[in-house]
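Sequence in, structure out.
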Amino acid sequence: MQALMTTDPDRRLLLDLARRTIVAHATGRAAPEPAPIGIFARRGGAFVTVHVDRSLRGCIGHVEMHDPLGQVVAHCAIAACSQDPRFSPIAAAELDRLIIEISLLTPFEAILGPADIEIGRHGLVVERAWHRGLLLPQVAIEWDWDTEVFLAQTCVKAGLPRDAWKNGARLWRFEAEVFAEDR
C-alpha cells in the first residue's frame, strides 16, 4: 500500500476550497463549485476535520473512491461544520478561530489483525453486519494507543463490542495523507 502524494500547491487548493465552502455555508452564501481539473478532478476518498480553538468541532468523510476530490472535499467540509451529530454547527463568529485538516485516503486493504497494523501509518475500518466504524491513522497517535486498543476503539466506533475484531468482524487498513492549515 502506498500513500497518496499531493504537491504543496494542491494541498493549499484543497484547504482553500474547504475554507471557502465552510465560510459560505456559515454565512448563508452559495458554496464554491470547483472546476473538475487538476487535483479537483482526481478521484478519491477524504475526511475534513474542523477545530475551533484547538478543540474538535467536526469530522466527516467520504470513503468511496469514485468521486472527484473537489466535490468530496466541498461536501465533507459542509458536513463537518454543520452535520457532525457530536457538535453544534460552526457559527460565523467562530470562523476566524477555525483550523481545517484534510485526510486523503488510499483504498482499503483487508487485514487479519494487529500484526497487519502500523500505528501512525494505518487507519482502520471494522465492519460486521450493519455496523461499520472508521478511525483515521492520526487518532491512534493522538490517544497513544497500541494496535489492540486501536482495533477495540474502532469496534466501539462501529457500535460493536470491543473484541468484535476477534469474533468475526471484517477488518481493513488504509493510509491517509494528512495536512492542515497553518493558523
